[in-house]
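Lecture notes, unit on protein representations.

Consider one protein chain, 303 amino acids long.
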Amino acid sequence: MIKFLKWLSVLSTIGMLFVLVGGALVTKTESGLGCGRSWPLCNGELIPSDFNIELIIELSHRLVSGTVGILVLALSTLAWKYFGSVRETKFLSFISIFFLVLQGLIGAAAVVWGQSDFVLALHFGISLISFAAVFLLTLIIFEIDKKFDAESLIIDKSLRRQIYGLFWYTLAVVYTGALVRHAEASLVCKDWPLCEKGADIGTFSMDQWIQMGHRFAAGILFLWVIYLFVRVSKQYYQQKVMYYGWLAALILIILQVTFGAFIIFTILNLYIALAHALFISCFFGLLCYFVLLSSRSANFDKR
């Protein structure tokens, strides 16, 4: 059974990445109404009679999300049944399903009734939490199979606070990034890292404030990850899970910032934009694993 669950968990994790990137694709191509104001049907039809690129993108996203939802439901149910004794399993199983359903409902509401940019920006963050829960379930299953050892890891209280803070801050940065997309503010600033040469911030439009606010928040996130990598390298260089995990986090955040700049330089190249969404998704999933390890260390302190 554990071999089957390993395969199912990997497929579910990859599937959730497709859901996240697919959602970004729908937004970037403005395909949210590709099926009109109809959900779950497409233009009121089970099988659309007329096809265009927006309809194909939107309908494909719905089909992928539905298929992945079945995989996640199966994974959560089986993980609860066979590994419910592991402390985090039941919570993660519930969270993965709950937030997957929630993001689907928000997407459906946006199609049928429409939503403000500020509400739509929540959609990506909610999907991200569901992905992270599935990703953590996968890591727990691999932990049970002894593919890597994190049981002996103890993270000190000061570093745990930093990790918790980074988690919540990353969610805020993700929200500002999603808001940039939904407000169509990706290209309101023509330069990088500043908005425009010689521009007076007092004359910024709301869209420019949204764009520059995201850049500033992302810059702080970038510096924070560098600081934590240096700290982990000094304190936990013998702990492979910590050292290589934070090295991966550093690489992902460097790619994230670099591709964020390339979005401006390439004038919103679609593939660059999708890679930008992919990197932050992987980074957030990895960060959530360090939150899980930190919570284990906190429980160890209470014993």
